[in-house]
UniProtKB/TrEMBL annotation:
The lineage of its organism: Eukaryota, Metazoa, Ecdysozoa, Arthropoda, Hexapoda. GO terms for cellular component: lysosome; vacuolar membrane. Residues 103-448 form the Glycosyl hydrolase family 30 TIM-barrel domain. Residues 452-511 form the Glycosyl hydrolase family 30 beta sandwich domain. Its EC number is 3.2.1.45. It holds the Pfam family Glyco_hydro_30. This is Glucosylceramidase. Pathway: Sphingolipid metabolism; Lipid metabolism; sphingolipid metabolism. Keywords: Glycosidase, Hydrolase, Lipid metabolism, Signal, Sphingolipid metabolism. Residues 1-25 form the signal peptide. InterPro entries: GH (IPR017853), GH30_C (IPR033452), Glyco_hydro_30 (IPR001139), Glyco_hydro_30_TIM-barrel (IPR033453). One of its GO terms (molecular function) is hexosyltransferase activity. It catalyses: a beta-D-glucosylceramide + H2O = an N-acyl-sphingoid base + D-glucose; a beta-D-glucosyl-(1<->1')-N-acylsphing-4-enine + H2O = an N-acylsphing-4-enine + D-glucose; an N-acyl-1-beta-D-glucosyl-15-methylhexadecasphing-4-enine + H2O = an N-acyl-15-methylhexadecasphing-4-enine + D-glucose. It is an enzyme of class 3 (hydrolase).
Length: 515
């Protein structure tokens, strides 16, 4: 009897809690940091999730996020037969004119990210992975993984630090791989089986280098170690594959130009176009092709766009063999202010079959930015949005963030190179904070699955815009208003009619509909 009563009570409580979950589970729990700065707070039992819900043909749905506090606020409207507001900015869509196929969006499984996630309870860890990779989260489908340590590690190391170990008998995964990368990558892959992982090494083991160091000015791979280092990289691919994590692509190394900047105190190893061409054509390319990881692509550059297109042109000039092995060109965003995106157009024109992928971006990295983590900064979200729109309008096929999560100082990292992240963890309260940068990326990643195609949309100086067509035949338009004033936008789809929408000041908007 008492058992029955208890069961009934339990059932009522379960039903009641389910009702609370269903009725409120979507909303952001805001926390304010003054001057329009706001984060959404998540913990072990709660996070803001949004399901993508596309209305029947003839209607469209908008999702809005703004500096004033909206996060994926959604609404369904009808197409109109004309322009409703005479002052509207008219953008014309042409689904018949197509550009690049989209590869995806994601972030990096750095040691720092794993160390931070690991400081939270198991339930809160799961919330972070859900909010990035789950179907009601950002639905990221890319993940970058460092081979060995980076500046966002708590020590300098590689996967074979035994001097002179040319047969790599001491090669082994580090504690960081086992505790801070592999478990989270595996869970992400369970949440989204579409994920493609790609790997990059920051440096070869010091004993293979001219300066016998992880960091430092003018540290190059010794010529006599080209084959040993290729074997080292392939050992990493095979070890991760054996752990259930196949690696889609391997880059030829993170930021090879850092070694020419003596003030950059991070793990690095230099390449010139000519030495890299030789390494890829004669060593890494054939070694990967003859290995059990022969499906893994090789991405070159992995550095700022200031090197485009000449670095690639020089690589091709140096070796005709290199052509066989280049599966992608990886670029970072840190010099975007000094180099126009037209370098992507030039690169694409020269090598139309080689995809360009943006593989690293973060806010707070400039030396003059004294506040590394700026909780709730809308302008940092806008910078992400601006970059993604600009890149995608110039042939870039993917956009991948740096650390998935950092602490409130912007670390940990051994080299004190602190920066910001879309997610900041607060282990003291077992919470994490989602910055506007998180929403900027999610305004793309949730709506644009792999193999979507960018389609033509006319441009206007007062609003940033980009459009896509997805494999499910949905049209997705993304708008960024950086003005303080709201803008009336009219999107003309010749097949379906006019979308009249208001894009409020300082806001992001994603529009989605069935074709
Ligand atoms: C998590 O956050 C929700 C929403 O703010 C709150 O209701 C709940 O009590 C929090 N859970 C914990 C364990 O603090
Ligand atoms: C996504 O959200 C919808 C609506 O809230 C819910 O029905 C569905 O179960 C959620 N999916 C996952 C995987 O949580
Ligand atoms: C490596 O370089 C750093 C500075 O770049 C220096 O402090 C350190 O002593 C060097 N280590 C070795 C083993 O040379
Ligand atoms: C990779 O190797 C396997 C056999 O080991 C072979 O069947 C396959 O065709 C190779 N793939 C490529 C892309 O070369
Ligand atoms: C999308 O449209 C094309 C062309 O009309 C059609 O062939 C294809 O089957 C459609 N795809 C889906 C998933 O409906
Ligand atoms: C703020 C922070 O996380 N700092 C860490 C940087 O890395 C060193 C180890 O190299 C740690 O001791 C610091 O705590």
């Amino acid at each position: 009897m008492s058992i029955c009563c208890n069961m009934a009570t339990t059932q009522i409580i379960v039903i009641f809690s389910l009702f609370i979950l269903i009725s409120h589970a979507q909303d952001c729990i805001p926390r304010y940091f003054g001057d329009g700065k706001m984060v959404c707070v998540c913990n072990s039992t709660y996070c803001d999730f949004v399901e993508v819900n596309v209305p029947d043909k003839g209607k469209f749905r908008t999702y809005k996020s703004s500096r004033s506090g909206e996060r994926f606020k959604t609404e369904v409207s009808n197409f109109d037969t004309g322009i409703q507001n005479e002052n509207g900015i008219v953008l014309e869509l042409n689904l018949g004119k197509t550009y690049q196929s989209i590869f995806g969006f994601g972030g990096a499984f750095t040691d720092a990210a794993g160390i931070n996630i690991n400081k939270l309870s198991k339930e809160t860890q799961e919330m972070i992975l859900q909010t990035y990779y789950g179907s009601n989260g950002s639905r990221y489908n890319l993940g970058r993984v460092p081979i060995g340590g980076t500046d966002f590690s708590t020590r300098t190391y590689t996967l074979d630090d035994t001097p002179g170990d040319t047969d790599l008998s001491s090669f082994s995964l580090a504690n960081e791989d086992i505790n801070y990368k592999i478990p989270y990558m595996k869970r992400a892959l369970e949440l989204n089986p579409e994920i493609k992982f790609f790997a990059a090494s920051w440096t070869a083991p010091p004993w293979m280098k001219t300066n016998n160091n992880y960091t430092g000015f003018l540290g190059f791979l010794k010529q006599q170690c080209y084959q040993t280092y290729s074997n080292y990289l392939v050992k990493f691919l095979e070890t991760y594959k054996n752990n259930g994590l196949p690696i889609h692509a391997i880059s030829t190394g993170n930021e090879p130009a850092d070694v020419f900047a003596p003030w950059v105190p991070i793990n690095d190893m230099g390449w010139t176009p000519s030495s890299l061409s030789n390494f890829v054509a004669q060593y890494l390319g054939p070694t990967v092709a003859n290995s059990l990881s022969n499906e893994t692509l090789i991405w070159v550059l992995d550095d700022q766009r200031v090197f485009l297109p000449w670095f690639i042109v020089d690589m091709f000039a140096d070796s005709s063999e290199v052509d066989k092995y280049i599966g992608g060109i990886a670029v970072h965003w840190y010099a975007d202010n000094i180099v126009p995106p037209s370098v992507f157009d030039e690169t694409h024109k020269l090598y139309p079959d080689i995809p360009i992928i943006m593989t690293e971006a973060c806010s707070g990295s400039e030396v003059w930015e004294l506040q590394k983590v700026k909780l709730g900064s809308w302008s940092r979200g806008e910078n992400y949005m601006f970059s993604i729109i600009e890149d995608m309008n110039h042939w870039v096929t993917g956009w991948v963030d740096w650390n998935l999560a950092l602490d409130k100082k912007g670390g940990p990292n051994w080299s004190k190179n602190f920066v910001d992240s879309p997610i900041i963890v607060n282990p003291e309260t077992d919470e994490f904070f989602k910055n506007p940068m998180y929403y900027a990326l999610a305004h793309f990643s949730k709506f644009i699955p792999r193999k979507s195609t960018r389609v033509d949309l006319t441009t206007n100086d007062n609003i940033k815009s980009v459009a896509f067509s997805t494999p499910e035949n949905r049209t997705v338009v993304i708008l960024l208003n950086q003005n303080e004033q709201s803008k009336n936008i009219v999107i003309v789809d010749p097949n379906q009619g006019h979308i009249n929408t208001e894009v409020s000041g300082r806001s992001f908007q994603t529009i989605i509909y069935q074709q």
